[in-house]
Amino acid sequence: MSVNYGTKRIVVGAHYGLRDWLSQRITGGLMALFTILVLAQLLFSRGPIGYDTWSGIFSTQWMKVLTFVVIASILYHVWVGMRDVLMDYVQPVAIRLALQIFTIVWLVGCAGWAIQVLWRL
Q1: Tens of pLDDT along 51-66?
Q2: Domain covering 18-119 in this structure, CATH number
Q3: Where are the domains of the chain?
């Protein structure tokens, strides 16, 4: 025999929990691996480290794509962190919404700028 104690409790706000925690760890790990890859390329390069070396590292198409994937993961990492901070510390809903919209617009602008830098559009 089952007993009904009423409706299910609906939790609002920062209820993303495991998904956000896991996404932060995965994007952080991806950024760390990318940093190790770039440092390894710098350590094994010959000659002085200047514009030509940096340009050579990022000139191949696979490196441009990988760099953009890492930039996208950074943007998502920032979004999750900022959203959680805003939900925790900004109580007036209108101000929180305005700050979240500003954050989204800023991050989309950063993504567009990264595409422009990587592929010289």
Answers
A1: 999 999 999 999 999 9
A2: 1.20.1300.10
A3: 18-119
